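Anyone up for a design puzzle?
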C-alpha cells in the first residue's frame, strides 16, 4: 500500500499490492485540499548572473524521484521509459533510448555504463557510447534512489531494504545486503554514496551503515536518530537523501530526528543536532547544509555542528535538498523555482524558473548545474 503525502510516499514494507490513500495521510502532513499556500517569493537585488543554458527531455517522472548525473562532458538522465545522454557544452542529445520499462530510478553512470532501474525490479545497464542495452536483470522489488558503478561493480537499492552488488560485466550477483524495514518508511529515504571503495548507505529507522563495496561486508553501523513516539507515523525516522562524505567524516540527516556526522573509519559519532528533513543535505569545505521539513535551509559548521545561518523564506514551497556549489548553495522547489543562496550568509543571490516542479537536488555539471523537473525536462544553468 503506498501512502502519498506532501510530495513524498510512505509505503508499507513487505506489502505486495500498491494503492493510494492520499486523503488520510495528506491530512496528517497538511497536504490535500487544505494545503497551506506556498510562501510568496521575496524581492531581492540579484548579485549573481543565472541563465538557462539548454533544456533536454526524458519522460514524465510519474511521482518518482529521478536525478540526473554528470559523467565527464555529459549529463545522463532517466524518466518515463527513456534514458538520455546530453552534451554539457551545448545540450546536444547524444542519444535517447526507450527501454520499454517503466523506470523508477536513474540515471547512474560509470565503468562505461549508464544505469536505470524499473518499477518492477528491472535493473538496466546501457552502453555509455551508444545507448544500447548491454544487460537487464531482475531484482527483488522496485529499484529506488542512487545507482552506482564502483570498480567492477554495479550497486543498486530496492524498496524492500536490500542493497545489491552486481558484476558490471553482465549483472550477475556478487553480494546482497539486506535489512528488515519498519512498518512505514518515506519515499526518498535510503540513499547511498561511495568513497574510497566504501559504500555508505542510510536506512529507514535512522541507521547508517558502511559496507565494503567489493563484497558487501558491513564495516560498521551508526545511529543517526532513534525512532520515537507512540504510533508508527510518529516513529518514522528515516535517513533521507544520500549521505555526504569528506576525507574525515560522513554525515546524514533523518526525518523527525537529527543531522549527525560520524568518523568514516569506525562510525564513532562526532556531533549531532536535532533536525527533521524530508529531502536531504549537502556539504562543502566549511558547512553541512540541510533542507528541513519546514522548507528552511540551515548551514551547520561541519566540524562543530554549530548552526550558522538559516534561510526560512521558502516555507511550504517543497524545497529540494541543497547543492553546495562553491560560493553558492542551490535549491529548487515544487513550484518550479530555482533559488541560489550565498554560502556565506544564506541570502538570496539569484533566481530562475523552470517548467514543472523540481523534487530532487540540483546536480553540479561543471560548469553550472542542472535540475530535472517532474514533467521530464532536464534544464542546465550557467551561474557566475
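Challenge accepted. My sequence:
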Amino acid at each position: 500500500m503506498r501512502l502519498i503525502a506532501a510530495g513524498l510516499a510512505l509505503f508499507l514494507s513487505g506489502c505486495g499490492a500498491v494503492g493510494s490513500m492520499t486523503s488520510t495521510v495528506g491530512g496528517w502532513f497538511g497536504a490535500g485540499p487544505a494545503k497551506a499556500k506556498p510562501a510568496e517569493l521575496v524581492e531581492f537585488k540579484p548579485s549573481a548572473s543565472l541563465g538557462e543554458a539548454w533544456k533536454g527531455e526524458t519522460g514524465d517522472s510519474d511521482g518518482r524521484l529521478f536525478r540526473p548525473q554528470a559523467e565527464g562532458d555529459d549529463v545522463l538522465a532517466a524518466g518515463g521509459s527513456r534514458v538520455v545522454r546530453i552534451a554539457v557544452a551545448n545540450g546536444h542529445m547524444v542519444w535517447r533510448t526507450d527501454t520499454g520499462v517503466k523506470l523508477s530510478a536513474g540515471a547512474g553512470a560509470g565503468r562505461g555504463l549508464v544505469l536505470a532501474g524499473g518499477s518492477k525490479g528491472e535493473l538496466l545497464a546501457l552502453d555509455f557510447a551508444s545507448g544500447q542495452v548491454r544487460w537487464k536483470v531482475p531484482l527483488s522489488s522496485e529499484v529506488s534512489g542512487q545507482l552506482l558503478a564502483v570498480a567492477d561493480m554495479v550497486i543498486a537499492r530496492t524498496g524492500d531494504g536490500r542493497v545489491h552488488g552486481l558484476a558490471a560485466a553482465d549483472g550477475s550477483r556478487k553480494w546482497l545486503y539486506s535489512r528488515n524495514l519498519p512498518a512505514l518508511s518515506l519515499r526518498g529515504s535510503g540513499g547511498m554514496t561511495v568513497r574510497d571503495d566504501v559504500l555508505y548507505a542510510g536506512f529507514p529507522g535512522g541507521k547508517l551503515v558502511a559496507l565494503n563495496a567489493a563484497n558487501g561486508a558491513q564495516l560498521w553501523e551508526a545511529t543517526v536518530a532513534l525512532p520515537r513516539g507512540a504510533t508508527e507515523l510518529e516513529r518514522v525516522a528515516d535517513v533521507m537523501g544520500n549521505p555526504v562524505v569528506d576525507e574525515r567524516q560522513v554525515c546524514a540527516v533523518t526525518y523527525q530526528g537529527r543531522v549527525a556526522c560520524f568518523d568514516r573509519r569506525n562510525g564513532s559519532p562526532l556531533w549531532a543536532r536535532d533536525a527533521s528533513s524530508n529531502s536531504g543535505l549537502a556539504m562543502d569545505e566549511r558547512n553541512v547544509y540541510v533542507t528541513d521539513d519546514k522548507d528552511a535551509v540551515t548551514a551547520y559548521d561541519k566540524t562543530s555542528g554549530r548552526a550558522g545561518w538559516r534561510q526560512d523564506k521558502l516555507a511550504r514551497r517543497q524545497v529540494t535538498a541543497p547543492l553546495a556549489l562553491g560560493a553558492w548553495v542551490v535549491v529548487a522547489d515544487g513550484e518550479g523555482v530555482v533559488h541560489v543562496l550565498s554560502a556565506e550568509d544564506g541570502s538570496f543571490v539569484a533566481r530562475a524558473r523552470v517548467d514543472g516542479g523540481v523534487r530532487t537536488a540540483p546536480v553540479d555539471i561543471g560548469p553550472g548545474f542542472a535540475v530535472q523537473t517532474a514533467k521530464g525536462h532536464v534544464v542546465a544553468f550557467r551561474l557566475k
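A detail worth pointing out: Residues 1-33 have pLDDT under 50 and may be disordered.
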